[in-house]
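Try this one yourself first.
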């Protein structure tokens, strides 16, 4: 193949790759449907809460224990009026004694502890009128095991009447619960929240947000000695009342329904150093082989070409290993994006190895003289520049990936 034919072939190959990439991106964009937004919403109520929302107390990722939207000042005043006018007010406390078996692949965890309720005579009259108990009127929304024991197990046969005339009853809870909030986009530097969502079971349409309000018992709620997950750092707990809006009236007629919900959460985060040693250091060691690929003697072309191939296979196995611990996410995590950068660098190294090999082959056919010396100097300069180029561009790409992650997601 002549030099002109070689250039023409290279141009055709590059053009084909670019056209194929454009067509692939266009096809994926065409078939990639956006997610339908959920009309159900959570709004933080104006009730007292133990909830960290200050920016200076949040992780660098922007993680917050807040779920849903915050009420505007006008909405807070209206919510306070509704709270004062609600006929049923139940003080609710939650104490988690232990947590275990955190599973990120199917986001869930095992938890058990205590839940207690304190209510006044009007709600007791409602329970007697409907021949029900408070345990039957309260549900844990995010409980996964629905066919096991009751979600709430009463301690004692009936509620106690206290000296101030209120009623009190203590329950235990035990089960596996769904996790709806985790910063998967920042993986492996992530935070996860273990929630317990408590809400009235309105079977007769008399316990909506305007009728019944759950007031968190902040002073006595909390977490016990065994509320830990081995390998994770505890970031504390929170409890707050939310206004849960359902995009339905459940067939009862009238507007869409709102209910009071108490959300108790324990937050855990990964150790940044442990995540680095476990996930990023092996990747850095593997990629260092790509940096040194051109330090192999130029006459060892087979050895040079085998390094990017070996690195590529290693990258695939490393990525499959950590990906097996995560659910099938509709986006790339931070670590996924780092691996994309690694794939691009490895591919570039392989292409350059082939290109340089062809240049050395062409150089061998040149007679000794200035032209051959210039080509040799260019190839030597590429050997020197390549590691620095990979480090600068790769580091810049990784930093850009981190900075463009949505805050708190």
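Now uncover the answer:
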């Amino acid at each position: 193949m002549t030099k002109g034919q070689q250039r023409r072939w290279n141009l055709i190959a590059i053009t084909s790759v670019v056209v194929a990439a454009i067509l692939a991106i266009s096809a994926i964009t065409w078939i990639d449907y956006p997610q339908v937004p959920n009309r159900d919403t959570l709004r933080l109520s104006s009730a007292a809460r133990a909830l960290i929302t200050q920016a200076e107390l949040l992780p660098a990722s922007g993680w917050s224990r807040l779920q849903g939207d915050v009420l505007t000042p006008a909405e807070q005043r209206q919510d306070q009026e509704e709270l004062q006018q609600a006929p049923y007010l139940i003080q609710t406390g939650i104490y988690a004694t232990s947590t275990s078996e955190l599973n990120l692949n199917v986001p869930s965890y095992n938890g058990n502890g205590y839940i207690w309720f304190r209510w006044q005579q009007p709600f007791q009259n409602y329970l007697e009128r409907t021949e029900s108990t408070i345990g039957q009127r309260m549900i844990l929304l995010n409980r996964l095991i629905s066919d096991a024991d009751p979600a709430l197990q009463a301690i004692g046969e009936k509620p106690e009447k206290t000296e101030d005339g209120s009623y009190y009853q203590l329950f235990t809870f035990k089960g596996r619960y769904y996790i709806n909030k985790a910063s998967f986009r920042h993986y492996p530097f992530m935070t996860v929240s273990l929630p317990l969502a408590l809400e009235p079971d309105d079977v007769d349409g008399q316990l909506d947000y305007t009728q019944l309000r759950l007031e968190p018992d902040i002073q006595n709620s909390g977490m016990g000695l065994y509320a830990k997950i081995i390998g994770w750092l505890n970031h504390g707990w929170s409890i707050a009342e939310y206004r849960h809006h359902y995009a339905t009236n459940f067939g009862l007629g009238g507007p869409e329904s709102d209910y009071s919900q108490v959300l108790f959460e324990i937050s855990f985060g990964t150790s940044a150093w442990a995540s680095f040693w476990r996930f990023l250091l092996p990747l850095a060691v593997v990629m260092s082989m790509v940096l040194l690929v051109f330090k192999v003697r130029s006459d060892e072309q087979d050895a040079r070409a085998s390094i990017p191939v070996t690195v590529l296979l290693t990258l695939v196995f490393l990525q499959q290993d950590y990906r097996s611990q995560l659910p099938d996410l509709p986006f790339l995590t931070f670590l996924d994006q780092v691996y994309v950068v690694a794939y691009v660098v490895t591919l570039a190294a392989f292409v350059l190895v082939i290109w340089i090999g062809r240049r050395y082959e062409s150089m061998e056919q040149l007679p000794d003289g200035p032209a051959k010396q210039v080509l040799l100097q260019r190839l030597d300069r590429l050997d020197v520049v390549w590691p620095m180029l990979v480090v600068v561009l790769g580091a810049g790409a990784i930093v850009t990936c981190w900075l463009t992650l949505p805050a708190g997601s």
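Discussion: The two ends are 54 Å apart (CA to CA). The chain has seven helices and twelve strands.
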